[in-house]
Structures are given as structure tokens and as C-alpha cells.
UniProtKB/TrEMBL annotation:
GO terms for molecular function: hydrolase activity. Residues 22-253 form the AB hydrolase-1 domain. The keyword Hydrolase applies. InterPro entries: AB_hydrolase_1 (IPR000073), AB_hydrolase_fold (IPR029058), AB_hydrolase_sf (IPR050266). This is AB hydrolase superfamily protein YdjP. Keywords: Hydrolase. The lineage of its organism: Bacteria, Bacillati, Bacillota, Bacilli, Bacillales. Its EC number is 3.-.-.-. The keyword Hydrolase applies. It comes from the Bacteria.
Amino acid sequence: MPKVEVNAGVELHFDDQGDGTPIIFIHGVWMSRKFFKEQLPYFSQNYRAITLDMRGHGDSTKVQEGHTISTYAKDLHSFITKLELKDVILVGWSMGAFVVWEYVSQFGESNVKGTVIVDELASDFKWPDFEIGAFNLTTLTHFMREVQENRENFLKGFIPLMFKKDVPPQDMEWMLEETTKPPSGVASAILYDQSIVDYRAIFASLSKPTLLCFGKDEKLIPVAAGEHLNACIKNSTLILFDNSCHCPFLEEPNVFNEEVARFIQSI
């Protein structure tokens, strides 16, 4: 398993297969690169497919500091620079979408060929002028406390919310293993930061093609979130996945892979 040192001695572990245009898959909060297990073999046939664990997640360094979207974007920039990647496709799922938007906010779009946003809002927080947000202060406080006091049971209830259908026991086992790898302090810190960031202000400046992939099942993220992004990001296309909730890349991997490949071929 390769790894690369990014900032302040932090090592990001990653998988890297294939040749051609680099596609970087960025996971959600508490998750890991292993959630993209259906994408690596497919996209590596025609592209350079890369899945990585952000700091504190998966197999990457469990450093206690730097757990903000801003720092994760800096880590991503360092990762891209160290590997000398050019004209990248950034695929951001859930929290990974915030990392993508923060990356282009800090470093621009010059080295980005296109972006794929998977089932995320412009902000997770339910601001006074953003009613479709996923969390209010009460919900966020509850989540923060559960992470500290009752994490495994909380995750056993949360993970099924990401899927339209029941999660098989064997899948629940590996997902629990991955989502409990971040130390509880790390899990709380990044949960808070990723829940209150708000990227509505940057959408008007985005110019590179964007594919928006949303599950029709709305246990976590409403379809209205995708429609809002589609209206705000001028060079975007919205695709809805009939049999998915928060994880179309796992729930409908063949359809997801084909749609993303078609998008990449078109830009």
C-alpha cells in the first residue's frame, strides 16, 4: 500500500492503479478509500484511478490536529503536487465534496479537468436562509455526543441511513471497522467542521464541468440539494440514481461507473 507525506509529517495512504487521466476519489467523513472498492478496478482500465484516506481516516496518520476541510484541501494539494498529477478529475462524496470545493477555492481550477460531486449539499447546516440543510444545532450536538459516548451503536444506526436497502451483515462489519478507525476526538473535530462549512458563495466562480450524482432515496440528503447545485453551478449536469440513497457508487456501481466514465469522456 503506497503512502505519501503531505503536510507536517502526515502520511496519506492510497491506492493507485492504471494510467492516463488521474481520477482522485475522496471519501466522506469517518469513511475511507475502501468505500470506492467498485471504482478502482473499473476506472483503472482506462484511467489512473486513485483512492486515498484523508488524515486521521482509514490507514493514514492518526494525527490529532488539522481536522478541518481547509487543511484536508491543503493535504490534497500537497498530494497532487508530490505525485505530479496533471489535469485531475476530482470525485468528492459527501464530505469529499467540501474538500473538492475548498481545494478549488484555495488553489483554483487550473489543474482540474472536471469534478464529480456525489450526494452532498452546499452546506450540511440548516442556516436561516438554507432550509434544505441536513443538520440543525440540536442534531449536530446530538451527533457530537454520540461520537464521544456511544460511537459503535450510533454508527450501527447511521450506516443504514446511507443505503436504500438493508445493509448485509458482512458489509456492516467492514464499514464499522473503517468508520471507527478515526480516533473519537478526530471524528468529533471533523464532523463539526464539515457540518458548518458553506460553499454557496463560490459556485458562481466555478467553470470546469461538474457531474452531480444523487440518490433518489432521501434518508440523508434531499434531491433538492442536487437541484440547487445544478441551478447554481453553470457547467453542471445532474443525474439521479433510482435505487440509491447516499452511496450510488456502492448501491448501483455499474450505472454509476458508466455515467462517470461517460462524463469524463465528454470533457
